[in-house]
Amino acid sequence: MRNVTLILDDGSRFHGKSFGYEKPVAGEVVFNTAMMGYPESLTDPSYAGQLMTLTYPLVGNYGVPAFTMEENGLATFMESDRIYASAIIVSDYSLAYNHWNAKESLADWLKREQVPGITGVDTRELTKVLREHGVMMGKIVFDDEPDNIPEADYNGVNFVDKVSCKEIIRYNEGDGRKKVVLVDCGVKHNIIRCLLRRGVEVIRVPWDYDFNTLEFDGLFLANGPGDPDTCEAAVANIRKFLASPSVRPCMGICMGNQLLSKAAGARIYKLKYGHRSHNQPVRMVGTTRCFITSQNHGYAVDAETLGADWEPLFVNMNDGSNEGIRHKVNPWFSAQFHPEACSGPVDTEFMFDDFVNLLK
C-alpha cells in the first residue's frame, strides 16, 4: 500500500495508505455516520464529486455483491450503474471479507472502477474538523508524487446534469397502468423499484426535460447531487406543472424536496456539514409521530420562505431543519430524507403508498 495524504483547504493533513485505484483526486470532503451500506452509498449519484468519509471504523469486512443488472436496466444490488463517489476514506480497511452475497473485495471493486480508497486515517478526528469548520474541498495525493496535485471544482457545478439520464426511459409499460413521470436528477434505483412494486408505469426523463408535454397521472421528483440552484430549468418545468388546471399528485425526495420548494417560492441554503447517515430522527409536523430516516444531502429548505399555500411536512429533531413540505390543498408533498432507504431504515416507505394511492 502506497502512502497517501488527504489535504483539506484549511491546511489540515491526514496520512494513510492507498487500497483502491492509485490516482490523485480532489473533491468536497463529506462524512457519513452509517455503520453499513458502502456498496449502496458509493453507487448513489448524490455523492458525485465528493470524497466520502465513513466514520464507522471497520469497512470492507462484508465485501461487495455481484454488480449485475436486471432485464429492466436496474442494478440488482446497487443504486446505479457505477460508483459515483470520487473516493472513499476509512479508518480500518478489512483485507479479508466474508458474506453470503459477496463476490469480490471492496478494494478490487474500487480498482476496477478506478476510484481511490485510503485507509489508516483517523476518521473520527477528520469528522470533528469537518463538523467544526464545515465541509471543505480536499485532495488525496500520493506521497511519492508530490508534484501531482489534482484540482476540482464543486460549488456552482451542475452535477445533476452530469448524472441524469440523457433520454427518456420507460419501465413497466402496459395498458391500464397509471403513468408516473420521474424527473431524474440522479435517481437511486431503489426509488424506481419502489414505484414498480406498486404496479405503476415509470417514465424516467432527463432533469431539464419539459415533462408537461407528456401524458401522465403523477409526477415524481428524484434525488440528486450538488446545488439545487443550478437546476433552474427543472424548477421552471415544476412551476408549469403546479400551475396546470389539471391537478395531479406530486412527490419529491431529497433534491426533489428542494426543487419542489424552490417552485413554491422557498429559498435553499447550504448546511454546515450536511446529513449523511442512517439515523436521522424526523417528526411529522403537527403530530408526535417520529421516524428514523436515511439521509444524504448538503443543502436544506428555509421553511420560513415557503409560499402561503405551503407548509412544512417533517422537521429534523437534531437541528430543526426542514425535512419535507406539502401543499395545504393539492396532493403535492415531499421528503428531504430517503423513504426507500437503500441502505437504511424503511420506517417511511409508506410515503410511496400514499403517492400511488392518490393517482386517479
Q: How would you summarize this macromolecular structure in one to three sentences?
A:
The chain is of the alpha/beta class and 360 residues long.
Would you kindly provide a written description of the structure presented here, covering whatever features stand out?
This protein is of the alpha/beta class. The protein has two domains: 3-142, Glucose Oxidase, domain 1 (3-Layer(bba) Sandwich); 159-359, Class I glutamine amidotransferase (GATase) domain (Rossmann fold), CATH 3.40.50.880. 18% of the residues lie in helices and 33% in strands. The protein is built from eight helices and 21 strands. The protein has a seven-stranded mixed barrel with strand order 1-2-10-7-4-3-11. A six-stranded mixed sheet has the order 12-14-13-15-16-21, sandwiched between helices. Helix 5 links the parallel strand 13 (179-184) and strand 14. It is globular and about 65 Å long.
CATH homologous superfamily caption of the largest domain: Class I glutamine amidotransferase (GATase) domain
- Cross-sheet strand order for the largest sheet: 1-2-10-7-4-3-11
Task: List the helices and strands in order.
Answer: EEEHEEEEEEHEHEHEEHEEHEHEEEEEH
CATH class group of the largest domain = Alpha Beta
Helicity range: 10-25%
Give the structural class: alpha/beta
- How does the major sheet shape up? 7 strands, mixed, barrel
Strand runs, count? 21
| CATH topology heading of the largest domain | Rossmann fold
Distance between the termini: 58 Å
Strand content: 25-35%
Shape-level CATH architecture of the largest domain: 3-Layer(aba) Sandwich
Overall tally of structural domains: 2
SS field, number of helical segments = 8
Rg result: 20 Å
The average pLDDT is: 97
Poorly predicted parts: none
Shape: globular
